[in-house]
Specification:
The chain is of the alpha+beta class. It has eight helices and 19 strands. Strands 6, 7, 8, 11, 12 and 13 form a six-stranded antiparallel β-sheet that branches. Strands 1-2-5-3 form a four-stranded mixed β-sheet, covered by helices on one side. Strands 14-16-15 form a three-stranded antiparallel β-sheet. Bound molecules: flavin-adenine dinucleotide. Flavin-adenine dinucleotide binds next to β3, β9 and β13.
Length: 350
C-alpha cells in the first residue's frame, strides 16, 4: 500500500490533488480486504481504472483509491453463433481489442484506441464509430462492496444507453466490475456504420486489422488516442456528451439552423452534436488563452496545456456551457465523473 498518491499522475487530464491511499487488487478477496480497511479508517473508496473519464478536484480525494488488476481471459463457449468469452476487468481496454482483432473475433474493432480499463467500459457503455460496447456484452461479473457477494448481471439488466448504464446511476459505487462476458463473432465481416470510417475504408480489404488501423488513424488525427507526444493529449476525450432534446425543441432549432446536425433516437427524441453547438457558439478548436483550452484537433476535448488546475478546467467548461446555453438554450452535460468536489456538477458549472 502507498500513501498520499497524487492523482494527477493517474488521470489523463493530469490535474487534481492526492488520494489518501492507493491500492490494487487482483482477486475479490484482496479487494474486500482493502474495502474493510477503508471502512475501518472511515475512508470512502473509489475504483479508478485508467483515469481517462474523471476530473479530480485540486484538493484531491480524501479516501482510498483502488485499481483492479485481473487480466484473465477465459473462453466459456464457442459455437457457430460466436465465441462467448470472459475477460478480466483489469485489462487495458485497447490491449483487449487488439487481442480480439488478432483472434479474428468481430464486434469490438471500431472501439479501438479508447483509453482506460476494460472494467470501466460498461460504466458509460463506451462507444465510437458506430459501435457501443453494450451491444457485445452478455453479462458483467461484479463484486458488491456492501455484501461482499460476487454475482453475474445480464446485459439486459444493465440499462445500457448512449454513454449510460445503471452503473452510473442507481448502482453508482455499489459494484466492482471484476470481469465482462462478451459474445464475439469469429471471421464475420465488420459492420462499418460510421460514414467517415466507410469513406476511409474505400478500396481497402474489410479485415478487422484494417478497420482497427483505420479507426486508430482517424482517432490519432483528432488527438483521441492517448499519446504523450501529442500537445493535445491531456484530456478526458469528449468533455460533453451529445445533448438529447425533445423532438419539438429540435424542430425549432432546425428551423433556425437548417444546417445543424441531428439524429433521431429510438425513443423519439433528437440527439444534437455537442461539437457543432460549441463551435457555432463561438468556441473554435484551440480556443482559450490560458492553461486550459479546447484541443486544436477536437473542439469537444477540453485540455490541460501543461500546468492547468482542476479549477481552470471547471472555469473553461462553465464558460463553454454558458455560451452554448446563451446561443441555443441547450444545456450541455459533462461526460467525465467529477471526483472530490464538495459542490454538485450543476453548481460548479453554473
Ligand atoms: C483521449 C480519450 C479518448 C476517449 N474516447 C472515448 C470514446 O471514443 N468513447 C467513449 O465512450 N469514451 C472515450 N473516452 C473516455 C474514457 O476513455 C472511457 O470512458 C473509459 O471507459 C474510461 O476508462 P477508465 O479505466 O479510464 O475509467 P476511469 O476514468 O478510471 O473511471 C471512470 C468511472 O468508472 C469507474 N470504474 C472504473 N473501473 C471500474 C471497475 N472495474 N468497476 C467499477 N467501476 C469502475 C470509476 O469509479 C469511475 O466512476 C476517451 C478518453 C480519452 C482520454
Amino acid at each position: 500500500m502507498t500513501t498520499a498518491v497524487s492523482l494527477r499522475h493517474h488521470t489523463t487530464l493530469q490535474v487534481g490533488g492526492e488520494a489518501r491511499q492507493f491500492v490494487s487488487a487482483a482477486t475479490c478477496q484482496q479487494a474486500l480486504h482493502h474495502a474493510r480497511e477503508a471502512r475501518l479508517q472511515g475512508l470512502p473508496l473509489l475504483v479508478l481504472g485508467g483515469g481517462s473519464n474523471v476530473l479530480v478536484c485540486d484538493a484531491g480525494f480524501p479516501g482510498m483509491v483502488l485499481r483492479w488488476q485481473d487480466r484473465s481471459l477465459e473462453i466459456l463457449h464457442q459455437s457457430s453463433d460466436g465465441v462467448h468469452v470472459k475477460v478480466g476487468g483489469g485489462w487495458v481496454w485497447d490491449d483487449w481489442v487488439a487481442e480480439a482483432v488478432k483472434r479474428d473475433w468481430t464486434g469490438l474493432e471500431c472501439l479501438s484506441g479508447i483509453p482506460g480499463q476494460l472494467g470501466a467500459a460498461p460504466i458509460q457503455n463506451i462507444g465510437a464509430y458506430g459501435q457501443e460496447v453494450g451491444q457485445q456484452i452478455v453479462a458483467c461479473q461484479v463484486l458488491e462492496w456492501e455484501s461482499g457477494v460476487e454475482s453475474r448481471i445480464a446485459a439486459s439488466e444493465c440499462g445500457f444507453g448512449y454513454r449510460d448504464s445503471r452503473f452510473k446511476r442507481d448502482w453508482k459505487g455499489r459494484y466492482l466490475v471484476t470481469a465482462v462476458e462478451f459474445l464475439l463473432h469469429p471471421g464475420q465481416a465488420p459492420q462499418l456504420r460510421y460514414k467517415e470510417l466507410r469513406q476511409k475504408m474505400e478500396g481497402r480489404p474489410h479485415t478487422l486489422q484494417e478497420v482497427r488501423a483505420t479507426v486508430l488513424a482517424i482517432r490519432r488525427s483528432k488527438s483521441m488516442v492517448w499519446d504523450p507526444a501529442d500537445p493535445n493529449h491531456r484530456s478526458a476525450g469528449s468533455f460533453f456528451v451529445n445533448p438529447i432534446v425533445a423532438a419539438d425543441r429540435a424542430a425549432q432549432l432546425a428551423h433556425d439552423y437548417p444546417e445543424m446536425p441531428k439524429w433521431p433516437t429510438a425513443d423519439h427524441n433528437v440527439k444534437l452534436s455537442a461539437a457543432w453547438l460549441i463551435e457555432q457558439a463561438g468556441f473554435p478548436k484551440g480556443w482559450g488563452q490560458g492553461p486550459a483550452g479546447l484541443s486544436s484537433n477536437h473542439v469537444l476535448a477540453l485540455i490541460n496545456r501543461g500546468n492547468a488546475s482542476a479549477a481552470d478546467l471547471i472555469d473553461l467548461a462553465a464558460e463553454v456551457r454558458r455560451g452554448v446555453h446563451r446561443r441555443f438554450a441547450v444545456t450541455l452535460q459533462p461526460e467525465p465523473e467529477f471526483i472530490g468536489f464538495d459542490r454538485s456538477v450543476e453548481e460548479l458549472l453554473a
